[in-house]
Amino acid sequence: MMIKWGLLYFGLVFGAGFGLGIVRMIWLVPWVGTRWAELLEMPWMLIVIILSAQWIVKTTSSEPQENQKHSYFGIGIIALACLLAAEVGVGISLRGMTITQALLARDPISGTVYYLLLLVYALMPWLWAKRLQSLN
């Protein structure tokens, strides 16, 4: 079950990121440049991450206890691994980059924020589950 929910979490966030990436590349980059376009996209991605993790936690927490064998931390790690694999795949196939370039060739400022957002992405299901437990 953990793999299923990790893949679903990845799909939700990657799908939104793909759509926002098109908007960023077509309209924002020519207007404000790459760094600012990426920085302007990141709050929207944070909202998507929070809402997706919240939905995953609420959906899985309604399952019967005997079926609730997944770990929210594991869900985030599976989703992160899928996201990094997709980054590399897109970088290599569509942009002609090497694996190292696909993962590390980023603006120093927006790249740092991006990597922090990846950390938030991986931890968000676990954080929402903890929050839900504390409210109950």
UniProtKB/TrEMBL annotation:
Annotated transmembrane regions: 7-30, 42-60, 72-92, 112-129
Keywords linked to the UniProt accession: Membrane, Transmembrane, Transmembrane helix
Organism, scientific name: Pseudocalidococcus azoricus BACA0444
The organism's place on the tree of life at top rank: Bacteria
Name this protein carries in UniProt: Uncharacterized protein
